[in-house]
Amino acid sequence: MMDQAQSLRQLVSSQDSKRMNDGEATARIITVCSGKGGVGKSNFTLNFSLALKAMGKRVLLFDADIGMANIDVLMGVTAKYNLYHLLKREAEIEQIIQLGPGSLPFIAGGSGMDELFSLSDADLNYFTTQIEQIADQMDFILFDTGAGLSKETMKFITSADDCLVVTTPEPTAITDAYALMKVVHKSHPEVSFKLIVNQAGDEKEAISTSDRIRLAADRFLQLDLPFLGYISADTHVVQAVKKQIPFSMAFPNSTAAKDIQRLALSYLAGSPEETKKLQGIKGFISKWLKRTK
């Protein structure tokens, strides 16, 4: 009997073939956010990116957390360059893209993120040109944003193809995740959200948590909120963070590692209708620049 993961792999494979036949090579832009800190958003983004890459996808991870950029810390990698060096024209895009564990390409955030929202037209054009050079080589570009809903995070969320909202079963995390989506949806109803429950005690708790948010979103916002999946509470995750190694690599047979693989498969198995709506990096930057001005 075919299991869920095998079914998802076959669906993903068939959709990849369709995209190739259609001549489509547009990167999907994904923003990952959370209503509050401490829900494991950055850890999720890192391991989700690695899972996509392990499935043969070309992935670029962009640490877009303004004040608390820490993707490189989770990787145990010292970033030689970050966004600041690009904005100051001290390095080009190929130089600031570094390789983390599993040869995952990433751009470190840091101090440069603040300056990204106050650039001159000339500097914005330079940034856009640089990003476009590398975007055509990617299938997915993931932006790990700061916790909560700052004006900077809002710009990333409303410019991307998808927004993955990470929460935990804790009441405050649930409330804050819903509040974030409520604010965004009221001003930008076109934003596509998908929900992830992290640190779930079991499947029952994960489904219960997602149902609470999804029912509220449907009733009060008329928002259809897909539940992408969950990651189990797993002591291996904490151990991996201490080791500064992604948990999916440090403990590949752990429950959390298997969960993140299933999540990635579920995401890749998204409907062909969604795929056709991709705007690509040019559309993302166009929207982003309008919201930055």
Automatic annotation (TrEMBL):
GO terms for molecular function: ATP binding; ATP hydrolysis activity. The keyword Nucleotide-binding applies. InterPro entries: FlhG (IPR033875), MinD_FleN (IPR025501), P-loop_NTPase (IPR027417), ParA/MinD_ATPase (IPR050625), YlxH/NBP35 (IPR033756). GO terms for biological process: negative regulation of cell division. One of its GO terms (cellular component) is cytoplasmic side of plasma membrane. Keywords: ATP-binding, Nucleotide-binding. The keyword Nucleotide-binding applies. This is Cobyrinic acid a,c-diamide synthase. It comes from Paenibacillus wynnii.
